[in-house]
């Protein structure tokens, strides 16, 4: 059956897909250094081929540099200000409670995936973590399942049943390299079996939280990713890949986590009533202890916002403090979900709430994390040559959430 | 004659050099993408060898991300707050005039180079541009000359005469790839002839201002750099290389420069009397038109600093505005040389003074420049394996101006 090339428009942008399978990949946590290290060992021959034939460059992600935020941006093509997902967690000031944002009820924009399906593409979404599935498959006709719960997928609810036998893949452990490799292997199998021709494959960053770029397990992981890229290329796919965020070590010289507990600090300095939200918090804390480089602060009644902001800005390790207006303008945040102050920390520093809120004993090894400015820049990788217009676009301020645009609209693929 | 391994201490740090030639290189304007692109073409085999045997990672430069600032940091090992050089230019509020800062009279710290010479090393400095020579050779016994004026070097003043015949190299044109390659070739010749065993080689960024990473002239340039790295490795050198700043395209979709003229904007909004200093300004304007992503603003008497700051912060393309206290704390600036407000612009935006202050017709091609936050992160490349302590240090917030420390103190080189 031929592949639909019908144009569709979503969130103000028109996409005209090629007659080839389109595969967009979110290489979760892939700081550029991971690619550099593995490529220096000649262990990513397919990525090398891709970048020589196509494009490799750096793009700016959405802030906070977290997974849900950037996956939401990638599948909608817009900023968090528009799609509304600004973390895994936020404090709902109306309901006066802390709320998980992993549900599509919080998504305020349509997705490219749903629109592609409506335009006749066979859309398939595979994500490592179940938490992302609901947002990514919002209003979408097609296949959507997670590696984490692959063996629970049902035809009626996931567009596919019996995943393990249909795709000949075992459901992996979530804290493993296989959780990500499963996603890519499932993508290959879906194309091979004619079950998908417009794919979004979203990996998980357990490996990057755990290993530095030169560590052998990381090199082997990226080598295995490269193997699947080769299989996708062999199937004639037009591939675009980017990352949701980078990754940096956040530890002191002795290897212990380098944490500023912001709620504790503010309480000591200004008194009670501060509420600090760590939007990285999710049910999967083993690899980062809910510590990232970005928190939101809700101020108690009557406290002087400027005094708090100025004091925070003067603390070593704090790199940015923004009030609501500036966070909306500069960090592209949704005004109603971010609290009073947004605080970002340095390349090697994470910000937390209070010591009691973070179980550091759950960390496997040294702390590596993300969320701030130093994890904002990520790679953009395109398998096919860019058109002149998109080469020019790449010389501006391209974003990681332009990846569908670059892949679908920006390539010479015939 | 044997090479001195006597320790020396400068600016609070002790250096214990190896008995091998030490070569530290500033790859001016080398955003990591330049290395990625050339390595993907297999045209940097020696750098590849170096990074497999030694180290490749990203480090944070000094701000503003300009050449003089970072060269001064590299040779002193300290921030601009300590060494005092915060641009090519500043407004001296006592003398009430705009002053060039290319002279060592403005340098407030001792250099590692002078200290190494005092400890018995044969120190040699080769810089592409003459403007840097005075600062880099401050109080130093040894050889110091520029590619630009190589044929004018004198034994009495430069520690070497007849450079062209002694080193068998022709003085290059300053706006050329050769201006940088000359520096590396001179380094090779100095070691070969026993004239230097502790070298600082500082290139120029004309090529990066002019070409994007994938452009053939840039690939050929980095390939030629790699050839000289190979010659230095063959001579047994311990090599550390970093960059002073990255490089980004600063242009609109139509290829025209993407400029905010800050003095013009402030005058229109708040009236006369503003003075905007572009610290990138120097006698070499052909490649950037004195436009970078960082300016200093001196306010007229009586104007409300907060009002100006808030207004600037709200303008599209402006990413950071800091008052003096914050610029000192956060950007590590010398308090007496920076004016009232520091303004940084986006990845694709430069800030200028007024249209009359910038000759855009002098630009060879599209505008590529630096100076801001998006040119802050640069590569660190070390030829030999890092010790455990320096591998750990690299997992923190290492700086480009730690390059002598990493190279001299941080390597296993026997």
Automatic annotation (TrEMBL), chains A, B:
<dbReference type="InterPro" id="IPR017850">
    <property type="entry name" value="Alkaline_phosphatase_core_sf"/>
</dbReference>
<protein>
    <submittedName>
        <fullName>Phosphonoacetate hydrolase</fullName>
    </submittedName>
</protein>
<dbReference type="Pfam" id="PF01663">
    <property type="entry name" value="Phosphodiest"/>
</dbReference>
<dbReference type="InterPro" id="IPR002591">
    <property type="entry name" value="Phosphodiest/P_Trfase"/>
</dbReference>
<keyword id="KW-0378">Hydrolase</keyword>
<dbReference type="GO" id="GO:0047400">
    <property type="term" value="F:phosphonoacetate hydrolase activity"/>
</dbReference>
<dbReference type="InterPro" id="IPR023116">
    <property type="entry name" value="Phosphonoacetate_hydro_insert"/>
</dbReference>
<dbReference type="InterPro" id="IPR012710">
    <property type="entry name" value="Phosphonoacetate_hydro"/>
</dbReference>
């Amino acid at each position: 059956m031929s592949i639909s090339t019908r144009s569709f428009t979503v969130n103000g942008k028109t996409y005209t897909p090629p007659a080839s399978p389109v595969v967009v990949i979110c290489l979760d946590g892939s700081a550029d250094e991971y690619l550099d290290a593995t490529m220096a060992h000649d262990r990513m021959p397919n990525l090398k081929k891709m970048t020589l034939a196509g494009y490799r460059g750096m793009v700016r992600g959405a802030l906070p540099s977290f997974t849900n935020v950037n996956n939401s941006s990638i599948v909608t093509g817009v900023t968090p200000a528009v799609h509304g997902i600004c973390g895994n967690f936020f404090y709902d000031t109306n309901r006066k409670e802390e709320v998980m944002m992993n549900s599509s009820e919080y998504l305020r924009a349509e997705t490219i995936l749903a629109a592609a399906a409506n335009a006749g593409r066979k859309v398939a979404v595979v994500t490592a973590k179940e938490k992302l599935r609901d947002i990514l498959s919002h209003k979408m006709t097609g296949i959507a399942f997670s590696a984490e719960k692959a063996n629970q997928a049902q035809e009626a609810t996931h567009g596919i049943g019996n995943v393990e036998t249909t795709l000949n893949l075992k459901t992996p452990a979530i804290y493993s390299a296989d959780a990500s490799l499963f996603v890519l292997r499932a993508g290959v199998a879906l194309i091979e079996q004619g079950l998908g021709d417009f794919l979004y494959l979203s990996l998980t960053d357990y490996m990057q939280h755990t290993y530095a770029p030169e560590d052998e397990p990381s090199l082997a992981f990226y080598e295995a990713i490269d193997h699947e890229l080769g299989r996708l290329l062999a199937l004639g796919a037009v591939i675009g890949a980017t990352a949701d965020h980078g990754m940096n070590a956040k530890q002191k010289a002795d290897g212990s986590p380098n944490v500023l507990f912001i709620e504790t600090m503010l309480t000591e300095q200004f008194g009670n009533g501060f509420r600090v939200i760590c939007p990285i918090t999710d049910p999967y804390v083993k690899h980062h202890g809910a510590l990232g480089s970005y928190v939101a602060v809700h101020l108690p009644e009557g406290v002087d916002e400027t005094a708090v902001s100025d004091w925070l800005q003067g603390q070593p390790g704090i790199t940015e403090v923004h009030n609501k207006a500036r966070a909306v303008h500069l960090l592209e945040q949704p005004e109603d979900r971010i609290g009073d102050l947004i605080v970002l920390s340095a390349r090697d520093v994470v910000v937390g709430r209070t010591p009691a809120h973070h179980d550091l004993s759950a960390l496997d090894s040294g702390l590596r994390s993300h969320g701030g400015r130093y994890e904002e820049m990520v790679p953009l990788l395109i398998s096919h040559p860019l058109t002149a217009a998109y080469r020019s676009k790449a010389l501006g301020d391209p974003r990681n959430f332009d990846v569908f645009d670059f892949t679908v609209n920006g390539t010479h693929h015939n």
